[in-house]
Predict the 3D structure of the following.
Amino acid sequence: MDTTQTLMIVAVLVVALIIGLAAWLYHRRQESRRLRQRFGPEYKRAVHDLGSESKAEAELMKREQRVRKFNIRPLAPADAEKFGHAWKVIQGRFVDNPREAVLQAGHLVRELMLKRGYPMTDFDRCAADLSVDHPTVVENYRAAQAISTRDERNTEQLRRALVHFRALFDELLEVNPVNEGVISPRRPMEVSS
């Protein structure tokens, strides 16, 4: 092989390497954009908590893979009605016993998550799992949990916790429209305040 052929082979390899690197960078940029759009504020939280975009993106992709294995399902209309009624009862109790109502709201949200197919492990894992399909309200869950786990007696703080639990509850209350054509998936059921 002469020098010209060797230079041609090296040039082709360099061009192929540059094209491969450009394709990889383009793919990474697209994946970053997808994750930012899908996770919204949860993306920023992960970057802040983990210290870099690459670590945050790796964590968010692991969450997606883990949640993909779950059997997340919408509720049957009868179950949605039962949960909706239970929420109304809890809201009605808030005036007389705000602290107990918030604790019951947290319990009802966990029960709803179980019914939908989310495994209930430790709180941080549950919040991470929720962030995959519900990134805009997972922060509500964290805020409500923080208030409900401390011995909070301030009625305004307890009201905020109930409102935070309500935001997540409403989003999780998805109904399977097959049985009665009630509500399509991804659209929260209307429950009066």
About this structure: The longest helix spans residues 3-39. The chain has two domains: 3-68, 77-172.
